[in-house]
Structure formats: C-alpha cells, structure tokens
Amino acid sequence: MKYLFSSLAAILLGFYLSGNLVTNWNPEFHFWRACIEQKRSELMGLQSNNKQVVIFSGGSTCSFSIDPTVLDETFPPSYNFGGAVPMGANYILSIAMEAARPNDTIALALEPIFLTTDKGARSKVLGISLGSWDFKNDFLKRKITLSERVFKRRPGARFVVTLLGRKVMGLPSYRYHIDDLRSGGLLTTEFRDRPKAFSDSLKPQRLSVEGVQLLEDLVEEARQKKVRLVYTIPWTLTDPEFAEHDREVNRILLREIEEFMPVIRDPFYGVHTNPEYFADSVNHLTEEGAKARTEALAQSLKSIAFSN
Amino acid sequence: MNFAEAQFWESLLLGLGVAWFVAVVVGKISHTARLKFEKTSFSLISMWLLFQESPLTLAAFLWVVLLGWVCLKSVTFERQNQSRSYLWMGLVVLQLAPLFYFKYWKFVVEGIFGLQVVTPHALIPMGLSFYSFQVIAVCLDSRRDTLTLPKFVDYFNFASFFPQIVAGPIERRKDLLPQIEKIRLAVTKESIEKALPWIILGLFYKMVLADNLAVLSGILVVDTQNVYHVIIEIVLFSLRIYFDFAGYSFVALGLGALFGVKLTLNFVSPYWSLGLRAFWRRWHVTLSQWLRDYVYFALGGSKKGIIWINLLITFLISGIWHGAGWNFCLWGVAHGVGLIFCHYSPKFKIPIFFNWLITMTFVFYTWLLFYETSVEQICNKTMLLLDIRNYFDFSMDSLMSLVDNRTVLALLAVMMVLSLVTLLMEGLSLKKSPYSYLLSVPAIFLMILCVIILAPVEPSTFIYFNF
Q1: Cβ atoms of A148 and A142 closer than 8 Å
Q2: CA 20 to 30 Å from B41, out of A1, A76, A229, B353?
Q3: Residues B150, B173: Cα–Cα separation, whole Å
Q4: Taking Cα atoms as reference points, which of A159, A163, A184 lies closest to residue A64?
C-alpha cells in the first residue's frame, strides 16, 4: 500500500500548499480582498446618503478607467466598483448585484472578452478564492461546485514562477497597493510600462453562448431587484491604423448587447489611440485617461439611464 | 473523455459506483447474473462516457463497432459455407466510411481535386481512427487465423474498453480479448498499487509538462526569420507531443491495470532511441505494429517486392492516418525516406552520442512537418534551418524577443529544466526497466505535488484526440 498512502499524503499536502498559494500567500488575493472591503464600505456610505447610485462594474479596465470625482453635481452619485479579470465575470457581477439596491443603476464596463469567448464568463481562480473568503457560493445563479473549489483553486506554473521570481528578484510582491485606491473607487498606478498598441486589428466579435447566458441571468436578477442596467465598452489602446475598423467591430458587438440592456455610446467606441492615456497595459488608464474617459461617457449615460 | 479534466473522473467514479451498487444487488439474486452484469456495465460506462463527449461520437463508435460484429459473423459464415464472400470486404469499407468522411473527405475533394462541395462541419468524432483500426484488426485476425467468434459482450468490451478507446493503445485480439473475457468490476489493493503510479505519471506528463508547454507555445512571439526562434518552437512542440501522447497512454495503462487488464506500453522512452528503426519500435508502439502487420507485411515486407516502396507506402499511410493534409503526407514520407536510408546505408560504426544526436535531429525536424500545416511555411523554415549563415546571425536581443516579459522567460526555463530532468530519468531508467525511476514512490509523491500546483488551471485537449 506504499503508493496509496504516499499518494494520499501528497494529495493532502498538494491541496494545502495550493490553497495557500492562491489565498494566504497570494498578494493579489490580499490586495483585491482589501479593495473589495474598502469599496463595499465606501459604497454603503454613499448609498446611505442617496436614493440612487450608479455603480460601475467590470474588470480592471473598469477599475482603472472610471473616476466618479470628475462628474459634476448634475450627475447622480456614482461609485467605481470594478474588480479584475482574474476574478471572472460571474464573481465581478455577482458582487455588484449584491451591493446594488432597488433604483440603483449598474453600469457595466465589462471587458468584451467575458462576453465573446467560451468560458469567459465563468469564475476564475481569484473569483473562486474570493468567493470562498466571502462565503459566496452562488454567482449569478451559477453555483460554484465542490469540484471547482478543489480543482480550480490552484495556482498553475505561471503563477508560481511569477510569485517566486518576484521574491528572488526583490520586486514588490504585487504591482498595486491599497493606497492606489482613490476616493470614488478609481484605481490608479504610478507604474508605466509603455504599452504598445495592438499590432493587429480586432477580429469580428459575437456574443458567445455563455456570454448570452450571463447577460440573460444578469437581466433577470436586475429585474427582480429593480436595478437598472446599462453597458459601456471599455477603452483599449489601438494603433491609429486600425482605429476605425476596430470601432466598427465594437459597434456590431454593441448592437448585440443592446438587445439585453441600453448601451452608452461615447464617441470612441472602446478604442483610443493616445498612448499617454494608458499606464501599464493597453486597458489600464492613467488618472488623466480616466478623467477623459469618465467625462466622455457621462453625458450619454445621463441621457440613457436617467431620462425618466 | 479527457483524463486531464475533473469531469472525466467524476463521471467515471459515478458510473463505476452505480454499476458496482447494481452488481451487488444483482449478486444477491444470482452470482452468474452478477458476472454478466459486471461485463455489460463496462460497455455501458464506455458508451456513457462517449455520449457525454457528444451524441455524434457515440453514433460513429456504434456504427464502426456494430459493423465490426457483422464482419466477424460474416467470417464465420464464409468459413462454414466454404464461400468466398465479398460481403466481408464491403463491411470493412463501410467501417472505414465515417473515418473517411470526417477526416479525409474535405482534404480529398478540396485539397486534391479542388472541388467545392459540402464537407462535414463537425469535428472528427473522438478516437475514430483508433477504434476503427482496432476493430478492423480483430476482423482481419479472425479471418486469417480462423479464430472463433467471441461472445458479443466480450467483443463489445474489447472494442469499447474506456481506458484506451479514444487514443489507444490499439490493442490486438490475442492480447486484449482473453483479458477482457475475464474482466470483473472489482478493484483490489494489488491492482491499485499497479495502477496508481502509471496514472500519476501520465497526469504529470500531460498536465504539468505538455499543458504548460502548450501554454508557452501560445504566448511565445516566434519570428519565423530567426533560426533560433524556429528551433525553440520545434523543440517545444517535440517535447509537448511526446508528453501529451505518452501521458494519455500511461493513464490508459493505469486505468486498465485497475481492472486487472494489462495494456501495451505504447511509448518506451522514444527520445532515447539510437536510430530511426529503434525510434519507431518505441514511439506509438501499437500503431507501428499495426502498420507493420497489416500494411508492410501485406505488401510483402522485406521478403517480396521492393523494400523501399513498401516502406514508403507504409509510412505514407502512417502520415495520412495522423491527419488529412499535405504536411502529414510529407511527415510520413520523410520518415519513410529516413528508414530507407537506414536500411540501405553502409553500416558505419558511429559513436553512440552522434547516433542519438542524428536520430533526434531528424525526428525533431520532422515534427515541423507535423505541426506546420502550410507547405510554404515548411519550405521557408526548412531553408532557414539549412542555411548555415543564419546560425552566425545571433544576438541576445533577437533571441529574447521570443518572450514578451521575464515571467514567460522564467516559465520557459522552468519547463525546459523539468522536461529535461524527466527525460534524463527516463534514460537512466532504461538500465532497469522503462520509467522505473519515475515510477518510484518519492517520484510519484513529487509528481502529485507538481500536478496539483503547477498544472495550468485551464487544461488543453489531447493532441491525438482528433487523429
């Protein structure tokens, strides 16, 4: 029975290490946990003083791009409740829906990849880990199974190599810090990675089967909770050569999304060509970029979401 | 039926659990009935697993296997009636029909004849090439060796034994059928001890090595004008395809052992082969044996006809079996030509290291023909590799442009080291028995840790599933 016993011991040790690597020893987990706690508390404060609040939700492109402090007084109070792509869309949207009260508006600034790729909507490692900490089991009508908790809550080689590499090279364990979180929920970074625009044009995008399911579940839950939904496509740094083509691709996708909820159309259609507006990736805006982005969508959002 | 996915193991455990429970209940009534049920349950579990893949996968499987049964019956009929029936031939052709339609129809009508006709949109049903060959072989063996007709349930279990149904090994009647006839739905301590190491070794090869190499292949920025980039690309694929396919075969071997069935070891450390002939005795062993027995020997082998033509035809068929495309034909022909060269060349005494180096250079290069579907790209890359001047045009900067950040570089380094250590242990094991060091208790302990911690969260599919 030597193989059986040593295998059982290795399995127990493996899952113990694996679980700790994605939670307790994971700086990304600690950062986002602190972020969510702080965002929840600030949002509750805002909600207690106002009848309706606009909650921006999405991955890190949302976290880095909406700055509610630049909105003028004619705009309803709003808060950037953005998360990060590794959480997965299910988790991101479920915490936003949980935080919303009747009459609030959720402005989805969700990355198209969540809606256009297979399995894009599913909760990912960080989402499942945060869900375990949050005692959340139900992500928008989709139960996180025991099998997912066990088998998906694993780090993978790339994660381990990154974590160890940062330790060995004396780099900060995670790029972002809770001090980077501004009032209103905007996340900022001093880090500049000179992002290069995508060197190719966007391929045609259609809503995936899972993307459609996600939107349907979201609309249903919003209807039950009496929460408004609107969608706004995040900005991506794009080569000027492909800008118009990519905008057209996004226009087509937005027409599909519009069948589920109103869509805010700012003049950029998810495409921007100014690298100065981008911090450390083609999706993360600088503070200046976030200001420009928020102002660009404010008027359209006001006309769509609060017209009646 | 992906061994690297939790869903497979959940379905299997559920299927086995239900079958075992029913068997116990049936056993209370009659021991004979229990034995019959246990055998039938293997067929049911296999069909359930195939159905979960897709209804088309199950339909294609049933078509081939049931026609195989009719074929076996027709052999008996022919023998009893002393007739030379062409029905048998027709049935074999019908068995091959799904394989031709799903795998080759598009290539033949569009690629060869340049016609624009309706081609199948569905993916090739999983394992079609494998079980088609296995079922045809049992028909051929039964006809040639005047073997008796097995019981239907045993034949069906032989054709559908779930560990090997979708990616081999392609077993022969004489090896597998007698074991299947005695199969029981029972797992013993001894069988677990035999099965576990192979299953874990297989999962380590597949999930840690092959899947991470696949992730790397997807994120490396390969400059097709840089010879070093192309070499790294080839090496990555060469390692990946071996760990991928061998990994699957080891899990299959382990699952077979769990039920007391000894499947053929389909890979015997092929990257330690000295010479191309040795390589083909150790790479995808059961396919090589199938092609040798049913194609090469049927053509006359080395006794009749011209050996080089027989070799070339055999390896061309091997190439076509692997995929419908000119690149697969080229790959098969290249190996055929390599073996012809080995057969006719004067017997030089080459130092072992150079023998190994030449063999592996050839084998690794030919993987380029395997994964690169564009013939134009194959030609460009081949010219790049052959032009000696390209090797002097080396700079660290151009080499580093392969990776877009240091994490990817570190991951590449870690995976290369892990792959090389694994291959080194394979080489050392050959002095005892294949993979013996890798199957030791400490190695298995470490491999389990690696599978849990290092396997990518999103597994890729097995390369050989669609062959």
Answers
A1: no
A2: A1
A3: 10
A4: A184
Give pTM, 2 decimals.
0.88
Q: What are phi and psi of B121, to 5 degrees?
A: -90, -25
Which tokens hold the place of B198?
């192979």
Predicted local distance difference test score (pLDDT) of residue A252: 93
Write out chain B residues lying below 8 Å of A155, CB-based: 453-454
> Are B452 and A154 in contact (CB < 8 Å)?
yes
Q: Do B193 and A15 touch (CB under 8 A)?
A: no
Mutate to test the interface with A, among B416, B454, B461 (most CBs of A within 10 A): B454
Read off the pLDDT of residues A15-57 as tens digits, 9 standing for 90 and up. 999 989 988 899 999 999 999 999 999 999 999 988 889 999 9
Token pair of B241, please? 């395809």
CA distance A87 to A85: 5
In B, which residues are within 8 Å of A165 by CB distance?
A: 406-407, 410
With an 8 Å Cβ cutoff, are A3 and B193 in contact?
A: yes
Q: Spell out which residues of chain A touch residue B449, defining contact as CB-CB under 8 Å.
A: 10, 13-14, 17
- For residue A187, give the nearest of A290, A56, A110, A92 by alpha carbon: A290
Q: How far apart are CA B237 and CA B214, in angstroms?
A: 8
- Residues B307-333: tens digit of each pLDDT: 888 899 999 999 998 888 899 999 999
Residues lower than pLDDT 50 in chain B: none
ipTM of model over 0.90: no
